[in-house]
């Protein structure tokens, strides 16, 4: 009997490998997906804050198997001449070679570059989540540059969603140390400068970076006229087209990207994607807030 | 299509359009078959914005890159100045998926189509202009397609007014931009009866806006696409008639 | 700053021959053939193995390749320290690749290729020892047969005391340091890396201590592999029990 069981599962695996489309279609016809989720449900998210203590803030986010690790390191820079009151947020995404069997170590892949552009668009250009004036220390003399590095450790679909959530979580827990600029032009921790001036004063707590907007993304796909929410890598290869929708806490649409594909979408469908993104937003925002409260409480 | 972070003209200084209304497109021109070495080429201009697209293929490619059942599409975008960066990769990804969507890739297995795009002049709407140039070049190359597409950008200006086909100054002052590509014929293989009303092939936004304004812009784009499609068909007929002589 | 107090305690309260807390998690990356997460104190390293699988088209210098990548967020200092660590990582990758070529039986390498990727998530000393341990655990998790069970350990001589498993602060001093990859069954050293000049007696002392450290690590690694395998078998046990019920 064990042999019969093994044959059944072998047949199912073989069918899945040889005819992935028919395999998937059978599940969709019954209204569920191979991992048991209904069509309208995205994967549960788990957020781990402060995962890397060498970074000034970090977040490890998982949607099912898709894993991204974001970390921010702060350094001092001299502000540019035309923006003396602004610091800089420099975003980089690296697809670790372990994230997928086809990756090879070497120069940044195109997929990583596209994710960088999407993150720059979402965080800086569109939502203006970070006000670069907040990163200024001394106008014209010193400002923070925040290097936000995101590593995709496991790539199983919805990478835009995972990386954006990881970036937002890392930014939300970033604390800017209190520093002062000495006469020599050096930047020293405020406590040192304060000790030199008035040794009795208390040390100043680092300030939390205020996020002006919290954008979160959801990727949906169209498969045989059904809207599938929260795609895995296998599903991304099978759907006719996919749409990434980004909304923020103020209910604004931060971005919608439908990059071509084999099918069109009418405006009603685009609206469905926006509604799905809003529902997902409520879910993710709750998880994020809980993680931040826990982290602040313990840290 | 990147509004820069620097201060653009303020909304008061940005006078109403002098040469056209808010809902009027700029002058469109399309030249085909400019490059002799390419299988197809087209230079598309919208006002002062001008983009050149060249198509090479279907042609042989490395065994590593080829696909046994379909044609592989590769896109290269070269900006006017500076080296290509993440913005260009995003544009390439979008254009590649649009081209893969309309071209009958199954007709040329184990080959590749290379699309090269050079931005000649940037006065706003570069993404839309590039998409239009690629569509025109595909026709010029004679690549079999079951659809063609056109593209238009519209902007949400401060003060909640909308304009279509913004120039660079308007783009920089805009609160949000929506660029969309629509197909030119209605019969689509994977379309179904459930799809009511007009549809988009691709959409790309920049900037934050309320959802209602976004949907208004998408609808505005679709109307603009109908106009651009009429022009595109007319221009194609003229150039093909010229060829057959 | 004294690194070893008169009572014999180090900066973090350890004894000179005490290893940091070791945490091993196997098989956490689903898309890979084998993966291992190793945490030694504050050093965190993630390794993944793809293979044995068919060789891709194009010439490869060796059937097994090991690449260590240092994340920008993992280093204590600014981005320049990451560049420096990255260069050291490249050098160590090559040594580790050579060692693995000896460890994996030749008949497997003849027809297939194996890719090992190591990503450093947090660096706090003993970096390359952690990378080697993670890479070997990932190979074992992938089911690749290995000739011998090995572990790597890092030691140094500070204030005339031989210390095992140095933290980043301890290794930044210009003290003699030695790191080895030790094969337990043959009792031989596969890789040895030394830093700064030292006398031969000091070297012998460090190697002896490192060997002890490796043997202790091997016990822990073996334990982790066994418990992970038992867990895998128990989660797939329902098949067996269902089969029995049908009989």
Automatic annotation (TrEMBL), chain A:
One of its GO terms (biological process) is rRNA catabolic process. It is found in: Cytoplasm; Nucleus, Nucleolus. SUPFAM superfamilies: Ribonuclease PH domain 2-like, Ribosomal protein S5 domain 2-like. GO terms for molecular function: mRNA 3'-UTR AU-rich region binding. Signal peptide: none annotated. Its main location: cytoplasm. GO terms for cellular component: cytoplasmic exosome (RNase complex); nuclear exosome (RNase complex); nucleolus. Keywords: Cytoplasm, Exosome, Nucleus, RNA-binding, rRNA processing. It holds the Pfam family RNase_PH_C. Residues 43-177, 214-278 form the Exoribonuclease phosphorolytic domain. Belongs to the RNase PH family. This is Ribosomal RNA-processing protein 43.
UniProtKB/TrEMBL annotation, chain B:
The keyword Cell cycle does not apply. Keywords: Exosome, Nucleus, rRNA processing. Residues 24-144 form the Exoribonuclease phosphorolytic domain. It holds the Pfam family RNase_PH. It comes from the Eukaryota. The keyword Transmembrane does not apply. Belongs to the RNase PH family. This is Exoribonuclease phosphorolytic domain-containing protein. One of its GO terms (molecular function) is RNA binding. One of its GO terms (cellular component) is cytoplasmic exosome (RNase complex). InterPro entries: ExoRNase_PH_dom1 (IPR001247), ExoRNase_PH_dom2_sf (IPR036345), PNPase/RNase_PH_dom_sf (IPR027408), Ribosomal_Su5_D2-typ_SF (IPR020568), RNase_PH (IPR050080). Its main location: nucleus. It is found in: Nucleus. One of its GO terms (biological process) is rRNA catabolic process.
Automatic annotation (TrEMBL), chain C:
It is found in: Cytoplasm; Nucleus, Nucleolus. One of its GO terms (molecular function) is RNA binding. Keywords: Cytoplasm, Exosome. GO terms for cellular component: cytoplasmic exosome (RNase complex); nuclear exosome (RNase complex); nucleolus. InterPro entries: ExoRNase_PH_dom1 (IPR001247), ExoRNase_PH_dom2 (IPR015847), ExoRNase_PH_dom2_sf (IPR036345), PNPase/RNase_PH_dom_sf (IPR027408), Ribosomal_Su5_D2-typ_SF (IPR020568), RNase_PH (IPR050080). Its main location: cytoplasm. GO terms for biological process: nuclear mRNA surveillance; poly(A)-dependent snoRNA 3'-end processing; rRNA catabolic process; U4 snRNA 3'-end processing. SUPFAM superfamilies: Ribonuclease PH domain 2-like, Ribosomal protein S5 domain 2-like. Coiled coil: none annotated. The keyword Cytoplasm applies. Pfam families: RNase_PH, RNase_PH_C. Residues 18-145, 149-213 form the Exoribonuclease phosphorolytic domain. Belongs to the RNase PH family. This is Exosome complex component RRP41. It comes from [Myrmecia] bisecta.
């Amino acid at each position: 009997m064990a042999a019969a069981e093994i044959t059944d599962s072998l047949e199912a695996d073989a069918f899945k490998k040889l005819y992935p489309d028919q395999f998937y279609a059978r599940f969709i016809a019954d209204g569920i997906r191979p991992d048991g989720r209904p069509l309208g449900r995205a994967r549960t998210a788990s957020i781990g804050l402060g995962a890397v203590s060498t970074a000034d803030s970090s977040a490890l986010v998982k949607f099912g198997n898709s894993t991204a690790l974001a970390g921010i390191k702060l350094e001092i820079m001299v502000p540019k001449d035309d923006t003396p009151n602004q610091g800089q947020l420099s975003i980089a995404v690296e697809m670790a070679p372990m994230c997928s069997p086809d990756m090879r170590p070497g120069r940044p892949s195109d997929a990583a570059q596209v994710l960088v552009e999407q993150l720059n668009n979402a965080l800086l250009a569109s939502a203006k989540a970070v006000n670069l004036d907040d990163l200024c220390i001394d106008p014209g003399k010193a400002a923070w540059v925040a290097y936000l590095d995101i590593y995709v450790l496991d790539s199983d679909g919805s990478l835009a969603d995972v990386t954006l959530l990881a970036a937002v979580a890392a930014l939300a827990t970033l604390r800017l140390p209190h520093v002062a600029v000495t006469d020599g032009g050096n930047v020293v921790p405020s406590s040192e400068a304060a000790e030199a001036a008035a040794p009795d004063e208390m040390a100043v707590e680092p300030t939390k970076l205020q996020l002006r907007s919290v954008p979160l993304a959801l990727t949906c796909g169209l498969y045989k006229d059904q809207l599938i929410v929260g795609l895995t890598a296998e599903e991304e290869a099978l759907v006719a087209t996919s749409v990434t929708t980004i909304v923020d806490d103020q209910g604004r649409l931060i971005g919608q990207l439908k990059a071509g594909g084999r099918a069109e979408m009418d405006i009603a469908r685009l609206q469905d994607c926006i509604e799905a993104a809003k529902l997902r937003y409520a879910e993710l925002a709750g998880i994020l807030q809980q993680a931040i409260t826990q982290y602040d409480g313990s840290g | 299509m990147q509004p820069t972070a620097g201060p653009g003209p303020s909304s008061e200084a940005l006078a109403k359009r002098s040469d056209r209304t808010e809902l009027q497109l700029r002058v469109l021109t399309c030249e085909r078959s400019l490059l002799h070495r390419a299988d197809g080429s087209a230079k598309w201009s919208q006002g002062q914005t001008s983009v050149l697209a060249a198509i090479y293929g279907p042609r042989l490619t490395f065994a590593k890159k080829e696909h046994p059942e379909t044609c592989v599409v590769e896109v290269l975008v070269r900006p006017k100045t500076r080296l290509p960066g993440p913005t260009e990769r995003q544009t390439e990804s979008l254009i590649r998926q649009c081209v893969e969507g309309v071209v009958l890739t199954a007709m040329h297995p184990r080959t590749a189509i290379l699309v090269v795009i050079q931005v000649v002049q940037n006065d706003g709407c570069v993404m839309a202009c590039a998409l239009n140039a690629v569509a025109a070049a595909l026709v010029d190359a004679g690549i079999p397609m079951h659809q063609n597409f056109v593209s238009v950008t519209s902007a949400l200006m401060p003060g909640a007014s909308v304009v279509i086909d913004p120039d660079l100054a308007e783009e920089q002052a805009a609160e949000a931009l929506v660029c969309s590509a629509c197909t030119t014929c209605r019969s689509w293989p994977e379309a179904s009866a459930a799809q009511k009303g007009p549809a988009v092939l691709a959409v790309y936004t920049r900037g934050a806006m309320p959802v209602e304004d976004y949907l208004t812009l998408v609808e505005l784009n679709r109307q603009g696409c109908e106009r651009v499609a009429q022009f595109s068909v007319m221009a194609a007929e003229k150039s093909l008639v010229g060829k057959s002589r | 700053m004294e690194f070893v107090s008169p009572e014999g305690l180090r900066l973090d309260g350890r004894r000179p021959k005490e290893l940091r807390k070791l945490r091993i998690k196997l098989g956490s990356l689903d898309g890979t053939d084998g993966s291992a997460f190793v945490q030694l104190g504050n050093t965190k390293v993630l390794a993944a193995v793809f293979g044995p699988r068919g060789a891709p088209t194009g010439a490869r210098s060796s059937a097994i390749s090991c690449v260590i990548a240092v994340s920008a967020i993992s280093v204590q200092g600014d981005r320049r320290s990451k560049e420096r660590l990255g260069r050291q990582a490249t050098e160590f990758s090559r040594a580790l690749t050579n060692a693995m070529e000896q460890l994996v039986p030749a008949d497997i390498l003849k027809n297939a290729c194996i890719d090992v990727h190591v990503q450093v998530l947090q660096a706090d000393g003993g970096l390359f020892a952690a990378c080697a341990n993670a890479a070997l655990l990932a190979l074992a998790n992938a089911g690749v047969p290995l000739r011998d069970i090995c572990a790597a350990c890092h030691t140094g001589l500070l204030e005339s005391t031989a210390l095992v498993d140095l933290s980043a602060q301890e290794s930044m001093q210009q003290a003699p340091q030695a790191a080895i990859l030790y094969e337990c069954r043959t009792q031989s050293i596969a890789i040895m890396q030394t830093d700064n000049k030292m006398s031969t007696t000091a070297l012998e002392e460090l190697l002896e201590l490192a060997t002890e450290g490796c043997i202790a690590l091997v016990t822990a690694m073996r334990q982790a592999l066994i418990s992970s395998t038992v867990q895998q078998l128990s989660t797939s046990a329902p098949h067996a029990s269902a089969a029995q019920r049908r009989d």
